[in-house]
Design goal:
The structure holds two protein chains of two kinds. By secondary structure, chain A is of the alpha+beta class. Chain A folds into three domains: 152 residues, Aldehyde oxidase/xanthine dehydrogenase, molybdopterin binding domain (Aldehyde Oxidoreductase, domain 4); 186 residues, Aldehyde Oxidoreductase, domain 3, CATH 3.90.1170.50; 250 residues, Aldehyde oxidase/xanthine dehydrogenase, molybdopterin binding domain (Aldehyde Oxidoreductase, domain 4). Chain A has 19 helices and 35 strands. In chain A, strands 4-8-2-15-12-13-14 form a seven-stranded mixed sheet. A five-stranded mixed sheet of chain A has the order 10-18-17-16-11. A four-stranded mixed sheet of chain A has the order 21-31-32-35, with helices on both faces. In chain A, strand 28 and strand 29 form a beta hairpin. In chain A, helix 10 packs parallel to helix 18. Chain A is globular and about 85 Å long. Chain B is an alpha+beta fold. Chain B folds into two domains: 75 residues, Ubiquitin-like (UB roll), CATH 3.10.20.30; 71 residues, DNA polymerase, domain 1. Chain B is built from five helices and six strands, in the order E-E-H-E-E-E-H-H-H-H-E. In chain B, helix 2 crosses helix 5. The N and C termini of chain B lie far apart (67 Å). Classes of the chains: A alpha+beta, B alpha+beta. At the A-B interface, strand 1, helix 1, helix 17 and strand 35 of A face helix 2, helix 3, helix 4, helix 5 and strand 6 of B. Strand 1 of chain A pairs antiparallel with strand 6 of chain B, so a sheet runs across the interface.
């Protein structure tokens, strides 16, 4: 059933939930007045350039900095030995491993940080960096996890006490015995081996830091491209030993994050150490190739999955084993309890009684990372595996993939639903979302068209589905943390005497539109026009503590905190209103922006109340009108949806083109539908990128192929397909506004739909093919059509 | 080397190192930080400006090559506080998210609309294919440019997508 969107409760000039109001932050961005890290200039500021390893694995024999130091304008050259003297040559990663800040013993990947040059001019710093001579004794490079775990492989982490092999971690979840029993009784087992390739978030603004430590007071102001400024402040305090009250992290406008700006990178630490050492501000901004070769990669999961099936098409159990390529340091940015992130969501949208997952991580001579690239901690890999498996299962059973999904979906009446890996899904109506996607995409019309055979010019039509479920909005704090810091989030709301407001948050926008969306939440709760509410984020001296923005957690956690802080204010406002109206509190009725004495026309506005809070508070009541709320969510939220992709594959050359891409998303209640649609469109484009073109590879020596935008292909306006968007609305039962996160759904859910579509095109023309790895490049498709194994 | 040029209508003289890229001259010498840097291979287009009316990626050019030229950056588009129609289009049609590609994207769009009054969607997508955006998926950028084109022709812009959005319950 389709109806127009429910009427918002507030008028457009208030702009509460459901209004597609223009974004408040855009005024400065469209005039070039955004203030990103590299735009900040401080008096006396120095510039840093990093010397990086040209080889993937080598012992460092010596480093000669004299030629660099002789250049006019060079102030200092810092090596790992200098940092070691202060205990800063190594730092902890977010996964409890250690990572070299500047290499002292060995380099373990191409692009690793070896030394840093500080100069009065950025050009001079870069010139001098080329004059730092490092004598390397090369070692064999390990470029994949299979090599890494093979007998006799060279030990990458030889500095780690007790480390005798290249295993970074091992992990398992689920019910092994129950799963084995279900597989033993299955009529059919379908399996799939696939690689989710290494990718990089590549936000258009690279990472950087500007550290300014006042030698007189020890006050450290560190401007940082940070998605999590508060967590970073605490980690700086713990790692660098700086007193936390003297550290102020300022995350200015951020030019995209996508998970890339969650970790702490060596460059941040070295710039800070340099400022401390030199008593001057030190700026470091990565180049694009530095960004791609050295900072947080994503994915790189080699996965094997199996489904146990009954002959009538019921899924009995799911089994998965993962071999993850972690690079030289295990640095996944994810809650510390979860070695493979939230891969637990591997049973997806289906009612599967048993599941079992094992995972093993391997060190390789590649950059560290493992960030959740537009993803909630490895949810993408899990969603991809199950959606590929389900399509393969339907094909083997001779069932329509939509029908197969329909009969295995968790039913609406099963929510809250406990999955086989112990996760409790909050709400969903998977059948409704899929039906809507089938309708909007004209799925059955395309199936009829497909049955007629290839197009006139011989192209094969394929239709792919993906019906993803995500798990986003970490915590609650009992289960979820980052480096021990619990994953709640916070809001501080202050109403000024004139009825305008300031809202301060622990999360940090990187383009998601927080200055608008979060003001709309306050507008909904208090009736103050959204454009009269200033939203402040990213300055740890001036915002309440929070864990930051990633894993689609801002609306589920920070948004909930905002609603709850607003409600605390409304409670106090009721007391003031009763005082002003000389009525009993229980006789007052609230409508957005005003209290009215029931049955009368006597009322006071929120603006009247705000003024009274500072000029005429009731006896015994504190003056002022402000509230702080730290929100610890009772559960995660579970956005879902169904995506339908129709492609046309040219069997002659293996190229493929998207004819139709329809996405129906259910992210619960939509705060600003325009912004939600924008998030989905952006995410769909990144999903397409992974399926079609975007990956990072390495040659046998460990040279990174994909170190710039000429080799690491990201889609332009021209190749990006056009999308049709639809929606269903199933509110989250535990979120104060019924909202779920949406920033990542499309990146998580869509890659499988593209790959399924290409495989569908081939299978229905008699090419039996279970898998083509992403990106689905023309030579791989051509290889599948012609029965030739394609080289990567 | 001494150079003289016009930036956003203002006469500027400066002494620059010959190897200084135009983008660095604009950002660091002139403080015009609206022009951004997103790569070093002249691929991303974040640094796009107008040089004598033509769109140029300002990282592909030395400042000294701009001697005598007239340059327009994103800061020079608004006229006495009145936004350029392209800027207005980006705001009205949600053509930006993080804002980092936006100045370059806007300048490419301005360049396109100087040459073509009524570009087709295909022509718009071609015209901005030298500008990468990692947030939006380009759809709303195309709509923003269509909005601006209509405004510049003195016509009513096409309505936004989202008012027509259907939600099923």
């Amino acid at each position: 059933m389709t109806v127009t969107a429910p009427r918002p409760a507030t008028p457009p000039e208030i702009g509460g939930l459901g209004h597609s109001v223009r974004r408040k932050e855009d005024d400065r961005f469209i005039q070039g007045a955004g203030r990103y890290l590299d735009d900040i200039v401080l008096p006396g500021m120095l510039h840093m350039a990093i010397v990086r390893s040209p080889v993937a694995h080598a012992r460092i024999r010596s480093i000669d900095t004299s030629a660099a130091e002789a250049i006019d304008g060079v102030v200092a050259v810092i090596t790992g030995d200098a940092l070691a003297a202060h205990g800063l040559a190594w730092m902890p990663t977010l996964s409890g491993d250690t990572q070299a800040v500047l290499a002292t013993d060995k380099v373990r990947y191409q692009g690793q940080e070896v030394a840093a040059v500080i100069a009065t001019d950025p050009y001079v710093a870069r010139d001098a960096a080329t004059l730092v001579f490092v004598d390397y004794e090369e070692l064999p490079a390990i470029t994949n996890p299979q090599q890494s775990l093979a007998e006799g492989a060279v030990l990458i982490r030889d500095e780690k006490e007790g480390q005798t092999d290249n295993v970074a971690y091992e992990w398992e979840t689920g019910d092994r015995e129950g799963t084995d029993r279900a597989f033993a009784s299955a009529d059919l087992v379908v399996s799939l081996e696939t690689h989710y390739p290494r990718s990089h978030p590549a936000p258009l603004e690279t990472c950087g830091a500007l550290a300014d430590i006042d030698p007189a007071t020890g006050q450290a102001t560190i401007y940082l491209t940070s998605q999590a400024p508060h967590a970073h402040r605490t980690l700086f305090a713990l790692v660098a030993g700086l007193p936390e009250e003297k550290i102020r992290i300022i995350a200015p406008d951020i030019g995209g994050g996508f998970g890339n700006k969650v970790p702490i990178y060596p460059g941040y630490v070295v710039a800070t150490a340099a400022s401390l050492l030199l008593g001057k501000p030190v700026k470091w901004v990565e180049s694009r190739s530095e960004n791609l070769i050295s900072t947080g990669f994503a994915r790189d999961y080699h996965m094997r999955g199996e489904l146990a099936l009954s002959s009538d098409g019921k899924i009995l159990a799911m089994r998965a084993s993962i071999l993850s390529d972690q690079g030289a340091f295990y640095a996944d940015a994810q809650p510390s309890k979860f070695r493979a992130g939230l891969f637990h969501i591997c049973t997806g949208s289906y009612d599967i009684p048993y599941a079992h997952v094992t995972a093993k991580g391997a060190y390789t001579n590649k950059a560290p990372g493992g960030v959740a690239y537009r993803c909630s901690f490895r949810v993408t890999e899990a969603s991809y595996l199950i959606e590929r498996l389900v399509d393969n299962a339907a094909w083997k059973l001779g069932m329509d993939p939509a029908e197969f999904r329909r009969q295995n979906f968790i039913r609406k009446d099963q929510f809250p639903y406990r999955s086989a890996t112990g996760f409790v899904y909050d709400s969903g109506d998977y059948h409704a979302a899929m039906d809507e996607a089938l309708r909007l995409s004209d799925y059955y019309g395309w199936r009829s068209r497909q049955a007629e055979g290839p197009t006139e010019d011989g192209k094969l039509i394929g239709i792919g589905l993906a019906s993803f479920t995500e798990v986003v909005g970490a915590g609650h704090s009992k289960e979820y943390d980052i480096a021990g810091l619990k994953m709640f989030d916070s809001a501080e709301l202050r109403i000024h005497p004139t009825g305008k407001a300031i809202l301060k948050l622990g999360v940090k926008s990187q383009g998601q539109g927080h200055e608008t969306t979060f003001a709309q939440i306050v507008a909904e709760e208090l009736g103050i026009p959204f454009d009269q509410i200033k939203v402040v984020e990213g300055d740890t001296d001036n915002t309440p503590y929070g864990l930051g923005t990633y894993a689609s957690r801002s609306t589920p956690v920070g948004g909930a905190a905002t609603a709850m802080a607003s409600r605390k204010i409304r409670d106090k406002a009721r007391k003031i209103a009763a005082h002003l109206l000389e009525a009993a509190e229980e006789d007052l009725e609230w409508e957005p922006g005003r209290f009215t004495v029931r049955g009368t026309d006597q009322s006071v506005t929120i603006q009247d109340i705000a003024f009274a809070a500072y000029t005429n508070p009731p006896d015994g009541e504190e003056a002022g009108l402000e509230a702080v709320h730290y929100y610890d969510p009772p559960n995660m939220t579970y956005p879902f949806g169904t995506y339908v992709v129709v492609v046309e594959v040219d069997p002659a050359d293996g190229t493929w083109k998207v004819l139709n891409m329809t996405a129906v998303d259910d992210c619960g209640v939509r705060i600003n539908p325009m912004i939600v649609a924008g998030q989905i469109t952006g995410g769909l484009t990144e999903g397409f990128a992974k399926a079609n073109m975007q990956w990072i590879t390495f040659d046998e020596q460990g040279n990174c192929i994909g170190s710039n935008f000429l080799d690491y292909l990201v889609p332009t306006a021209y190749e990006t397909p056009k999308f049709t968007l639809g929606a269903t609305v199933t509110p989250s039962p535990h979120h104060p506004l019924g909202a779920k996160g949406v920033g990542e759904s499309a990146t998580v859910g869509s890659p499988a739909a593209y790959v399924n579509a290409v495989l569908d095109a081939l299978r229905r023309r008699g090419h039996e093919v279970d898998n083509i790895d992403m990106p689905v490049l023309p030579h791989r498709v051509w290889g599948a059509v012609n029965g030739v194994e394609a080289k990567p | 080397m001494k150079i003289s040029l016009t930036i956003n209508g203002r006469e500027v003289s400066a002494d620059v190192e010959p190897r200084t890229l135009l983008v660095h001259f604009l950002r660091e010498d002139q403080g015009l930080t609206g022009t951004h840097i997103g790569c070093e291979t002249s691929y991303c287009g974040a640094c796009t400006v107008l040089v004598d009316g033509k769109t140029v990626k300002s990282c592909t050019m030395f400042a000294v090559q701009a001697d005598g030229a007239s340059i327009t950056t994103v800061e020079g588009l608004a006229d006495n506080g009145q936004l350029h129609p392209v800027q207005e289009g980006f705001w009205e049609r949600h053509g930006l998210q993080c804002g980092y590609c936006t100045p370059g994207m806007i300048m490419s769009a301005v360049g396109l609309l100087q040459e073509k009054q009524s570009p087709s969607e295909d022509e718009i997508r071609h015209a901005i294919e030298g500008n990468l955006c990692r947030c939006t998926g380009y759809h709303n950028i195309v709509r923003a440019i269509e909005y601006a084109a209509a405004k510049m022709r003195g016509e009513e812009p096409p309505p936004p997508d989202w008012e027509e959005e259907e939600v099923s319950v």
